TrEMBL record:
Entry's Gene Ontology molecular function annotations: 2 iron, 2 sulfur cluster binding; metal ion binding
Species per Swiss-Prot/TrEMBL record: Hydrogenophaga taeniospiralis CCUG 15921
Keyword terms: 2Fe-2S, Iron, Iron-sulfur, Metal-binding
Domain of life, per lineage: Bacteria
CDD domains xrefs: Rieske (cd03467)
InterPro entries on file: Rieske_2Fe-2S, Rieske_2Fe-2S_sf
Segments forming domain Rieske: 9-114
Protein name (Swiss-Prot/TrEMBL): Rieske domain-containing protein
Lineage: Bacteria, Pseudomonadati, Pseudomonadota, Betaproteobacteria, Burkholderiales
SUPFAM superfamilies in the cross-refs: ISP domain
Protein's UniProt keywords contain Iron-sulfur: yes
Length: 121
């Protein structure tokens, strides 16, 4: 924990997420993935694993966060589609709402870490 009250939870190494790939993570050991990370256009994006419409987990199975064509993040509960880079809902009952972004850092060794405030992610 640093002086600002944040903790950096290690997730994976930068090279473990190829372009277009998505992985879910459970950094605090809650028994289910609480966030997911995807690589889109070379950048890593992290989102809380909760639909803004119903608060339910997004994936229909582990690491399955994208629609069939891989163009959008999709909520398994009602099919809402979200932009991969912005998290904005572009189709579905939560149109105009966004996924909650999670802050990532990649250290000099390529370790991807998520920032958490006082054990809340």
């Amino acid at each position: 924990m640093n002086a600002m009250g944040t903790h950096r939870w290690p997730l994976c190494h930068d090279h473990e997420l190829a372009e277009g790939q998505v992985r879910g993570f459970d950094p605090e050991g809650e028994g289910q993935d609480t966030l997911f990370v995807l690589r889109h256009e070379g950048r890593l994006h992290a989102w809380a694993n909760a639909c803004p419409h119903m608060g339910v987990p997004m994936a229909w199975r582990r690491h399955a966060y994208l629609n069939a064509s891989g163009t959008h993040v999709q909520c398994h509960a009602h099919g809402a589609l979200f932009d991969k880079a912005s998290g904005l809902c572009v189709q579905g009952p939560c149109l105009g709402q966004s996924l909650r972004r999670r802050e990532l850092v990649v250290d000099q060794d390529g370790q991807v870490k998520v920032l958490a405030l006082m054990n809340k992610i």
